[in-house]
User: What shape does this take?
Amino acid sequence: MTRNTHPSQSPDPSANQNPSANRPTAPLQNPHRATLPTARERIQEAHLQELRAARTRRRIVVGTAVAAVLALAGGTALAIGTAGGGGSAPAAAGTGATGDPARAAGTAAPLVVPANTSGPDGTVIVYGKPDAPHTLQVFEDFRCPVCKTFEKAHGKAVQQLADEGTYRIEYHLAAFLDVNLGGRGSRTALAAAGAAANEGVDKFKQFHDVLYANQPEEREDGFGDVNRILALAEQVPGLKTEAFTKAVTDGTYAPWAAKVAEAFNGSGVTGTPTVKLDGKAVKLADGNGRVLTAEQLTAQLRQAAGGQ
Assistant: This one.
């Protein structure tokens, strides 16, 4: 399995041969890194401890994704982790507003596919004009801090080209950080995103943006609390309907979220965020590892789309 190095930890030279990926000043880092110890020895030790813990989980739980992390891979995609097998944690009891409906639903609950989704089992959410001549695939995890940085820097530009009809956006969402770091925030947010999609694609897109704008610190697992999710839903006009609230509280779309996470794990994409236009990787940083500006990314996308 390919192992990638998490941006909030020291890079593993054997996992990434691109020298620019190992620079400690790589722009797209975990935005909360400044709060962590700065001594290289402690960072390295924390990295080794997590790798050892990941190997233990892999031996104990068959099919569990192994923790692995990276900062910048080849200048073509920015990623913070990999998803191995199933990528979802075992089901456990305990529902309710502050419990874990996503876990409680598990595989025992029936699969309910949200409206306004596509692909096998509705695992893809498409935003934009259906007849757009190009397809932009965006691979993200709601708990991924580098995805938050990507959305903050490029989200509006990416959406504008979709609104203009240059391409349609396919969202492929992951939940592997719950396995890598523990917790349930990725899955709970993903299931809630399904409830938003059921209300409408525009509602999903707005909720998607709100989640990233209010993303908690990666290891905090704040999205694991459905009360927090429901409070954020209030920022999207018309989203917090009775049906939406019930779906989030009951974990109606938790089995669907598991299917979406499985689809990501089988996609061949090793980390998030990854962006592809018509199947070809989109550069999110220049040759020196600097994040492209919105204008530079827009120019790249327009050129790749044939100047449209």
Observations:
- The longest strand covers residues 135-141.
